[in-house]
Specification:
Number of helices: 5
Strand content: 25-35%
Radius of gyration: 20 Å
Largest sheet: 9 strands, antiparallel
Distance between the termini: 33 Å
């Protein structure tokens, strides 16, 4: 089998925008995260809060998808979804997960590992009603990750829900929908460098508010 050139093996970039050292970073990884996130937003990166969420089921079979970071603080990183989705099923059986944010324009990644817990009902409901009305209807209409006969299944359900909850009315929070918070024990800040000698500065949690900072080889 032949492929047109250039081949995938020929695709590469030489990263030259910035460097990163232990002396550069904040002692608090959440403050360092804020600094990088603020910079990504200031650079108008599209979907700066998009992140890969990697989970694994009870047998260790991994899966990954893109989700959106909607809140973070020293308690962790929050995203919202259908609890009966594949990721929800994975997390119910194996609460360990990883997140990756990638900002190509800044030649940066942030890799996070930790344990995931559901947010409170109040947090889930508060965020759900902050979403656009159409997104609330869509979340209620879709049996996420479940097999359906065709697209008309969810489109018909959307029509039914819009009759019950037209624009301007309150859509109830579905019992199967809500938030998760990843409580991290590992946060890595990755800065691309020339010749693939990238900078990797890692925070490893020793105790609740005690983080060890180290450098990893690329």
């Amino acid at each position: 089998m032949s492929f047109t050139k250039p081949s995938l093996a020929d695709l590469r970039e030489n990263y030259t925008k910035a460097g990163l050292s232990v002396e550069d970073v904040e002692p608090d990884p959440f403050l360092q995260f804020k600094n990088w996130m603020d910079e990504a937003i200031a650079n108008h990166i599209v979907d700066a809060n998009a992140m890969t969420l990697a989970t694994a089921d009870k047998d260790g079979m991994p899966s990954a998808r893109i989700v959106l970071l909607k809140h973070y603080d020293r308690d962790g990183f929050c995203f919202f979804t259908n609890y009966t989705s594949q990721k929800g099923k994975d997390l119910a059986n194996n609460p360990h997960a990883a997140l990756v944010l990638h900002w190509k324009e800044l030649e940066r990644q942030i890799c996070i590992r930790g344990t995931v817990h559901k947010t409170s009902h109040q947090e889930s409901e508060s965020y759900f009603h902050m979403r656009p009305h159409g997104s609330q209807i869509g979340a209620t209409a879709s049996p996420q990750s479940h097999q359906i006969a065709d697209r008309s299944v969810i489109e018909n359900r959307e029509v039914e829900l819009l009759k019950d909850y037209p624009e301007g009315t309150t859509v109830p929070l579905p019992e199967f929908w809500g938030g998760y918070r990843l409580d991290p024990h590992y946060i890595e800040f990755w800065q691309g460098r020339p010749s693939r000698l990238h900078d990797r500065i890692v925070y490893t949690r020793e105790h609740r508010n005690d983080w060890q900072i180290s450098r990893l080889a690329p």
